[in-house]
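LOG
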Amino acid sequence: MKQPQWYSLLGLAARARKLVSGEELVIKSIRKKEVYLVIVANDASESTTKKLQDKCNFYNVTLKFAADRGQLGSAIGKHERVVVGVIDQGFAQKLLSIL
């Protein structure tokens, strides 16, 4: 089965160390204004989703929803992940154009 293009690009960004994953690390990076794009799994809990939406709105960071936590985690070569933050502007722009 062929994976979507964003899936491969997210894996490339992970190998280039241009991602942060996990709710607390992403929120900390948003506060430091290091994140350009936040990708949240569709099956994230309501409280996690609301917390991330509020942070992204306050700090003016783009938020997108994609896949489920298993697919998001496997895209970056890790176990299930609910949220991923892109800390490189080039990767963020390309992912936004695909998503």
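LOG (cont.) second protein
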Amino acid sequence: MRNDHGLRVVRLGLIGAGRIGTMHARNIARHVPAAELTAVADARPEAAQKLAGRYEADARDVDGVLKDPEIDGVVITTIPDVHEELIVRAAEAGKPVWCEKPASLTPAELDRAIAATERAGVPFQVGFNRRFARDFAAARKAIEDGGIGTPQLMRSITRDPGRPEGLGTAAAGIRPWTIFRETLIHDFDTLLWLNPGARPVEVYTKADALVAPEYKENGLLDTAVVVITFDNGAIATAEANFSALYGYDVRGEVFGSKGMVVAGRLDSTPMVQYRVDGSHQCTVRSDEELFRDAYVQELAEFAEVVRGNAVPAVTGADARNALEVATAAITSYQESRPVVIG
């Protein structure tokens, strides 16, 4: 089947009908011309039926998606706990795989998932959306072109807006070590990506539960700073907090021997609110708003990967590198010491 642009449409099956899966389903169905949302699966059949019904897709179980020869690729948007299993099953079914971050919860799990995709010879792409945001991509190009010289100081920030409802409950998606494996994992990938050719060699973490201290004993931290030292001498900080009352705040900065690049702004929205005390630039309130175009672009690229016109820009190896830093950050916090990598 071809679309109005003459492109062969790839048929994608989505596994996971939660918040992030709902967004990706909409993007596939409405904003990626080369793709069609063919089927939706979820552990909750009613959730799959509801989401599939919005876009005239089929609601199925996981086997129904993986065993369908008409489905060209699989998009995994479940909770991370089952990512490894689903990646392996999709690979064994011969389906190209796109998976939300973190691709697994431990490096060992991810190694098994990567090995399965390699054995099957199927592409494997991971959802680190900041690489597809125009400002972050421009920063990366400036660094690659030598515009700032050698990176020396680096910074990546993620501040989620407000205190998440139900912080500390599995239903809210906040689990032990979430701040490292599911939030700061974006910052770790960004810092690795913005320091091309360099490797992290040491990680040191300071973290606490300042937003909701009652959950600290369960490993549910909400405030963290992680210092990463690279083998080219660069020193990076990754910072996260779950209570930015002013909006969703994501920024990156690389200071080098010849200059500096900055990505992300506090006023990352075209909407301006005018008040009696003057104009006020409003910040965005969610990742879906701030990274709308990036979320679309990463799935548009996956469609091209499935069609054989591209290779994944974000690979399983990239995901493992970021997860290795996240794992070291957890160990550093638990043992109150720097952790050497490699």
